[in-house]
UniProtKB/TrEMBL annotation:
Tree of life domain: Bacteria
Residue intervals passing through the bilayer: 50-71, 92-113, 133-154, 166-185, 191-209
UniProt protein name: DUF4386 family protein
Keywords associated with the record: Membrane, Transmembrane, Transmembrane helix
Length: 225
């Protein structure tokens, strides 16, 4: 295994996890689907929470960029492994990662639209029904579509790393369990979305440990010339 891509994949994965969790915590200050109209009205009238939600909204694209960086480094790492990754799993891995980022962006934009309109666009406060509808659309994008893309990415990545002997058995089993949760869960609780960054951290720590044990790749005479 090449140490460079492994360390880069781990570092960018940890960066993504930190940004994603921070964005999720800040955006969770917005009213949820089960909250009454009074909660939505209070949110629109209180600039503090709206500003925090807007800050969380701006962190989402940074988390997405960090994930794309992580995914690219991970795929570069997979290309150095033996046996080579299967074409189908490798393709699904790419599509699942792109799907996750696209749905995450769309969902965050919808859920954060009331805060953006009221506190960044100087628009009149939105009616509770409109805000709740936008929140529902955002939750659908994130918890139905983005989480499934994350689950498929976790499943394919765990499979490819486990096949190459990079992940220990215990980490592989945990990775499969977390991927199954992401693929099968029907929860719209924000805590459910924390499973994916937890998987990223688990795999990142395992990659760093494996890279530390892996011998350096010797430079052959043909490569030197």
């Amino acid at each position: 295994m090449s140490r460079g891509p492994a360390r880069l994949a781990a570092a960018t994965g940890l960066l993504f996890a930190a940004l994603f969790v921070a964005a999720l915590v800040l955006m969770h200050r917005a009213p949820g689907l089960a909250d009454p109209d009074a909660r939505y009205a209070a949110f629109q009238a209180n600039g503090g929470d709206g500003i925090l939600v807007a800050v969380g909204l701006y962190l989402v694209p940074l988390a997405g960029v960090a994930f794309l960086w992580h995914m690219t480094a991970m795929r570069a790492l997979l290309d150095t492994l033996s046996p080579p990754p299967s074409t189908m799993a490798h393709g699904l891995n790419l599509l699942a990662g792109v799907l996750f980022v696209a749905m995450l962006f769309a969902g965050a934009a919808a859920a954060g639209a009331p805060a953006t309109a009221s506190y960044l666009g100087d628009a009149a406060p939105l009616a509770p029904d409109v805000t709740r509808a936008l929140t529902a659309v955002g939750y659908g994008f994130v918890f139905v579509f983005a989480v499934r893309g994350a689950g498929m990415y976790a499943l394919t990545t765990t499979t490819l790393l486990r096949t190459a002997g990079v992940l220990p058995r215990v980490v592989g089993v945990l990775g499969y369990l977390l991927a199954a949760f992401l693929l099968l869960t029907a929860s719209t609780r924000p805590a459910a979305a924390l499973v994916f960054p937890a998987w990223v951290v688990l795999v990142g720590v395992s990659l760093l440990a494996h890279a530390r044990r892996a011998p350096s790749t010797p430079v052959t005479a043909s490569a030197a010339t």
